[in-house]
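Re: the 170-residue chain
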Amino acid sequence: MNRKYKVLSGIMLVLSMAGLFLGCTGALLKNSGSLKPSATATVHFERFSINDDYNYFLTGSDVYPVAIFGLKKSYEIDGDRDLWKEIEPKEEIISGLVSNMQMRLLDCCLQKAHGFDILDDHGQKIGEWYSMLGLVSGIIMKDNGKVLIYPPLDTDDVKRYQGRTSGRGR
């Protein structure tokens, strides 16, 4: 009987911990947006299309950005404005940034850039993103139309792209 009690107590403890973890995770992720791969977004950036309803931003170098995105004008970037640089929505500016990004990605990392839809916490599209695959970033929806968008983590691929390590390929 004592052994059954220990096993049952252990199972209840594990289930309680799992419930607590899932409850906390759910609360943390409640306002999270996401990036969803999008062939349409890829085409928009590769054709240097400007959406008049978006404000455009980049992170990384002004010549070889790590990521470029357009965010609906009804939203405002929240947090440290130094993390993202607003860029003028002109075709010649976007074309230079996209072309440089494509060239650098192919040279350093043997890959193409891809487009993504930026989705809010309800799955609604609020913008478009362009970068290498595999970047890790975060999107948190705040009150009053504010969005906190974290720049991509400083992974080995990002370091290679920025010329801070040697080697090619993945």
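The first strand starts at residue 34 and ends at 37.
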